[in-house]
Design a protein that fits this description.
Order of helices and strands: EEEEEEHEHEEEHEHEHEEEHHEEHHEH
Oligomer: single chain
CATH class of the largest domain: Alpha Beta
Number of strands: 18
Distance between the termini: 30 Å
CATH superfamily of the largest domain: ATPase, nucleotide binding domain
Number of domains: 3
Structural class: alpha+beta
C-alpha cells in the first residue's frame, strides 16, 4: 500500500503534500520551491511545466497555457469562459460536445489534459521525494465547483496516472489544516482565500456529532477574476508608465522587457509585504537609438497600496454576500482563516480584520 498524496491544484500555483508521522508535509519540487506555477507551455520541441513555462510566458504567449482551471468542466458558451477569452492570449475553442477546449501548438486539447500535465509534475515531485511510485491522491477544488468540474478534475488525475480517492472542498481542506477538526464543540468559520488568480470566501460550519466532526459549506462567494496577478499587473502598469515618462519608451511593446518587468514587479510586491519600500532595478531593460536604458525605481508600500486599493475593496462585497447567504451576522463567526499568497499583504489582512471585527488566524502557511 503506497502513500496517498494530497494535491492543491490551483489556478495560478499548485502544491503537493504527503502525510508524515501524522502531519502533512509539503514537498519541494525539483527547483526547490514549495509551489509550482500551474502553467504548461508548448515550444518547438518540448512541453514545459511550472517555473520553466512561466519564465517564457511573455515571449511565447499563444502557446503558454495558464489558469486552465477557469475552463475545466465548463461549456464554451458559459459566461466565465466568454470572459476568459477576452483576457488570455491563447486560443479557447469550442469542442464538438460544446466543452471549452484550448488550442496551442496547432493542437486542440481538453482542459483536463493540460491539468494532467501539472498533476503529473506534482506526482513526480512526490515520487522523487518518497523514492517510490505514487498511484493515489486526493485533490482539492473550489467549493462552488459543480459535478462536471469535479469529474473533469478527477479525469485530469486519471490521465496523470492517479486514482483520485477524494475530491475535497478547498475551504474544508483549509479548516482541516488549522486543526479545526480537533476542537471540541460546534464552530462557524469564514475562510478567506485570495490566491494568484481567483478569490473566494466560504462560510463553514463544523458540527461535532458523536465525537466526529462534520464539515458543511454553508455558502461561498467570490470573484474568479481577482487575484495576486491583478496586483502584479497594477505595479507593472505603474512602472512602465513611469518609465515611459522618463525615457519615452513603452515597455509593453517589447515582450522580453515585459517578461523581466513582470518578474521584477512580482518580487517587489512580495518585498513590500515585509518592507516599507523596495527598489525595482532592471539594468539594460531596453534600448533605443541613443543607447541602452535602465529601469531603476523606488516603490513605497503606501504607493503600492494606493495602486491596488480598489482590488482590496473588491474582496469585501463577496464577504457580505456569503454571510447573508449563510443567514449569519459578522458576530456569529468564531474564526477567520486566511488562505492564498496574496493574503500576506498587510493591507489585505487589515481590511479582513476590519470587516470581521476579529484578528484572522494566520498561524499556518497559507
Amino acid at each position: 500500500m503506497g502513500k496517498i498524496i494530497g494535491i492543491d491544484l490551483g489556478t495560478t500555483n499548485s502544491c503537493v503534500a504527503v502525510m508524515e508521522g501524522g502531519k502533512p508535509r509539503v514537498i519541494e519540487n525539483s527547483e526547490g520551491d514549495r509551489t509550482t506555477p500551474s502553467i504548461v507551455a508548448f515550444t518547438d520541441d518540448e512541453v514545459l511545466v511550472g517555473q520553466s513555462a512561466k519564465r517564457q510566458a511573455v515571449t511565447n504567449p499563444e502557446n503558454t497555457l495558464y489558469a486552465v482551471k477557469r475552463l475545466i468542466g465548463r461549456q464554451f458558451d458559459e459566461e466565465a469562459v466568454q470572459k476568459d477569452i477576452k483576457l488570455v492570449p491563447y486560443k479557447i475553442v469550442k469542442a464538438d460536445n460544446g466543452d471549452a477546449w484550448v488550442e496551442a501548438d496547432g493542437k486542440k486539447m481538453a482542459p483536463p489534459e493540460i491539468s494532467a500535465r501539472i498533476i503529473g509534475k506534482m506526482k513526480k515531485t512526490a515520487e522523487d521525494y518518497l523514492g517510490e511510485d505514487v498511484t493515489e491522491a486526493v485533490i482539492t477544488v473550489p467549493a462552488y465547483f459543480n459535478d462536471s468540474q469535479r469529474q473533469a478534475t478527477k479525469d485530469a488525475g486519471k490521465i496523470a496516472g492517479l486514482d483520485v480517492k477524494r475530491i475535497i472542498n478547498e475551504p474544508t481542506a483549509a479548516a482541516l489544516a488549522y486543526g479545526m477538526d480537533k476542537k471540541a464543540g460546534d464552530k462557524t468559520l469564514a475562510v478567506f482565500d485570495l490566491g494568484g488568480g481567483t478569490f473566494d470566501v466560504s462560510i463553514i460550519e463544523i458540527a461535532e456529532v458523536d465525537g466526529e466532526h462534520q464539515f458543511e459549506v454553508l455558502s461561498t462567494n467570490g470573484d474568479t477574476f481577482l487575484g495576486g496577478e491583478d496586483f502584479d499587473m497594477r505595479l507593472i502598469d505603474y512602472l512602465s508608465d513611469e518609465f515611459k515618462k522618463e525615457s519615452g519608451v513603452d515597455l509593453h511593446s517589447d515582450p522580453l522587457a515585459l517578461q523581466r518587468l513582470k518578474e521584477g514587479a512580482e518580487k517587489a510586491k512580495i518585498e513590500l509585504s515585509t518592507s516599507q519600500q523596495t527598489d525595482v532595478n532592471l539594468p539594460y531593460i531596453t534600448a533605443d537609438a541613443s543607447g541602452p536604458k535602465h529601469l531603476n525605481m523606488k516603490v513605497t508600500r503606501a504607493k503600492f497600496e494606493s495602486l491596488v486599493e480598489d482590488l482590496v475593496q473588491r474582496t469585501i462585497d463577496p464577504c457580505k454576500v456569503a454571510l447573508k447567504d449563510a443567514g449569519l451576522s459578522v458576530s456569529e463567526i468564531d474564526d477567520v482563516i486566511l488562505v492564498g499568497g496574496q493574503i500576506r499583504m498587510p493591507k489585505v489582512q487589515e481590511e479582513v480584520q476590519n470587516f470581521f471585527g476579529k484578528e484572522p488566524r494566520k498561524d499556518v502557511n497559507p
